[in-house]
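About this split. The held-out portion is used to measure sequence recovery: a designer receives only the structure tokens and must propose an amino acid at every position. Recovery is the fraction of positions where the proposal matches the reference. Here is one held-out target exactly as it appears in the evaluation file.
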């Protein structure tokens, strides 16, 4: 009996320590918040440095490196901003909000990777050794023979550079597609999380989410499937949907804040 009481006390102490650790644990969204502030602040400092010393002779080679650092820190800051918002939504009691936020967190990684590969010139390895020919436009026989030779060289150059162009095209499509999906999932998570204080708020929430889905679907379709033979009427309808989307996107959180404050 004494042993059981002793073990119960030990278990209670352990549970108390675990509860204290959970209480003192920093939430994930706060970690992303601090990281976002750090990356954006570093981007601002680098930008100011580049502006001040843009005319310096030493900036010819250093400027390109610092520009890439600037682009990298800005991308990481944007990544942390989206991740902070989505991580906060993961704690919401509504299941749809948690699902959308979790999917957004996973998708958030897929636009960052091609961004980094693109700005750091990783794809340039695929075109090493590819030399573009120089054309001659003279009317002499020698020039015509040279032009024929250059055409053959250009065909070889096109075959050589094709892997690089394909990699760049795929990277841009992945970057744009996943970036659009992350923004859409962030909007869905945030706007579903809003309470339906009034019917107007409910309608505006549905409008913002529906218009966002339509616009992102059109964007992905045009980008990934190269759809370009669309009529002018279609694009006018898309513009109207965009205006309605912007209106619902701005007005909804304002109404929610006003109603929440009154309550």
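Reference sequence for scoring:
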């Amino acid at each position: 009996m004494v042993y059981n009481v002793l073990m119960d006390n030990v278990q209670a102490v352990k549970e108390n320590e675990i509860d204290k650790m959970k209480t003192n644990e920093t939430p994930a969204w706060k970690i992303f918040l601090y990281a976002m502030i750090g990356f954006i602040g570093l981007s601002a400092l680098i930008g100011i440095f580049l502006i001040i010393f843009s005319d310096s002779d030493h900036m010819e080679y250093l400027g390109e490196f610092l520009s890439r650092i600037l682009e990298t820190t800005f991308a990481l800051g944007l990544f942390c901003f989206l991740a902070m918002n989505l991580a906060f939504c993961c704690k919401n009691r509504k299941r749809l909000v948690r699902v959308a936020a979790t999917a957004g967190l996973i998708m958030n990684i897929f636009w960052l990777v091609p961004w980094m590969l693109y700005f750091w010139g990783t794809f340039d390895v695929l075109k090493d050794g590819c030399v573009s020919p120089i054309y001659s436009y003279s009317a002499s026989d020698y020039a015509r023979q040279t032009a024929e030779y250059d055409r053959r060289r250009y065909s070889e150059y096109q075959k050589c550079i094709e892997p690089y162009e394909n990699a760049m095209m795929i990277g841009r499509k992945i970057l744009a597609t996943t970036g659009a999906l992350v923004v859409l999932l962030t909007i869905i998570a945030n706007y579903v999380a809003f309470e339906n204080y009034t019917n107007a708020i409910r309608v505006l929430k549905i409008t913002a989410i529906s218009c966002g889905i339509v616009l992102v679907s059109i964007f992905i379709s045009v980008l990934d499937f190269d759809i370009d033979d669309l009529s002018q009427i279609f694009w006018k309808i898309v513009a109207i949907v965009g205006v309605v989307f912007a209106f619902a996107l701005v007005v909804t959180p304002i109404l929610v804040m006003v109603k929440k404050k009154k309550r």
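Annotator remark: The longest helix spans residues 141-193.
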